[in-house]
Amino acid sequence: MKFEENKPLDIVLNDLFEHYRKNVTAVGQITDALLQKGVVSSQEDIVNDHIAFRTLGVPHLGIASFEKIFLAYGYKKMDHYYFEGKKLDAYWFKPPGTDYPRIFVSELIVSQLSEEAQAIIHKYTDGITADPVDTLNLENGQETADFLQKPLWKLPSSSDYTRLLEESEYAAWVIFNRYYLNHYTISIHELKEGYNTLEEFNNFVEGLGIKLNTSGGKIKTSEDGLLRQSSTVSALYDAKFSDGVTLQIAGSYVEFAERSVLPEFKDTPRDQITAAQRRDGFETNNADKIFESTYTTQIKNK
């Protein structure tokens, strides 16, 4: 995934991926192995199905704020998803062209948490009294890219993080990581034969010693059977909190998506199939389990 043009969107996506790649070891491991086996000739040959972000549903933030960036860059807001157990809302955004990834943005419904958890979150976010995106010059790609790496609230204490972790691992992840890229997604069906099904690709990844998310099974399948997804489990990294305590916490991960050809195009030769002829969008049940790639139960699962 790399965009050569100097459009603001290209600058933003390149910058996001560079920060993410440097901090998520599995990205390099998988890419290097694909290169060594001749599956791809460069990182740029890997098609990025989608990228995902997590947000907090509080005044001046959340999806309503975050989406302004990508709507300005030509993305179109699509379907809504609700995750009752995890207390989340989400939307996906269709890209302005097939060269760009879809975007999946989720939001914690803070008002559904306990009063104590809400108070912790608001302690950090109440200082934001206006939508920070409104101050950006979105035509300046580097300014927007820098914003997405910038802390929007002060560093949390280890006790606040731990308390949130007990109630909502999603809340704990966001209170520390903020808008950090949650994951990028390799389009498995775009790879060459031997690697272009999730069964084959998962075996390849596990052969590298990388652990997969097993929540709901290693392969999460949509009701129509046309969207199948897997993901690695986030590695732990040392995070220093405001009280000087260092804890090992979840970072980000890599997802893999296999989008099947829609039934009406099943007889189309493989080399003539376009992205528009494959299953689009997302699936609530799949995404619900993918979220758990940063959850303690998955990370510590042997």
Short characterization:
It contains 10 helices and 10 strands.
Report on the architecture of this protein.
The protein is α+β, with helices and mostly antiparallel strands and 302 residues long. The chain has one domain (6-298): 2,3-Dihydroxybiphenyl 1,2-Dioxygenase, domain 1 (Roll), CATH 3.10.180. 32% of the residues lie in helices and 20% in strands. Strands 2-3-4-1-5-10-7-6 form an eight-stranded mixed sheet, sandwiched between helices. The protein has a two-stranded antiparallel ribbon with strand order 8-9. Helix 1 packs parallel to helix 5 (141-148). The longest helix has 16 residues, at 8-23. The radius of gyration is 19 Å and the shape is globular. The two termini are 32 Å apart. The model has no long low-confidence stretch (mean pLDDT 93). This is 2-oxoadipate dioxygenase/decarboxylase. Belongs to the 2-oxoadipate dioxygenase/decarboxylase family.
Question: Termini separation (Å)?
Answer: 32 Å
How many structural domains can be distinguished in the coordinates?
1
Global structural class: alpha+beta
Backbone CA Rg:
19 Å
Low-confidence parts lasting 5 or more residues at pLDDT below 50? none
Order of helices and strands: HHEHEEEHHHHEHEEEEEHH
CATH architecture type: Roll
Query: Tell me, what is the CATH class?
Result: Alpha Beta
Major sheet details: 8 strands, mixed
Mean pLDDT over the residues = 93
Task: Classify the beta-strand content into a percent band.
Answer: 15-25%
Separate helix tally: 10
Q: From the 3D structure, determine the CATH topology.
A: 2,3-Dihydroxybiphenyl 1,2-Dioxygenase, domain 1
Strand order of the largest sheet: 2-3-4-1-5-10-7-6
Principal-axis shape equals: globular
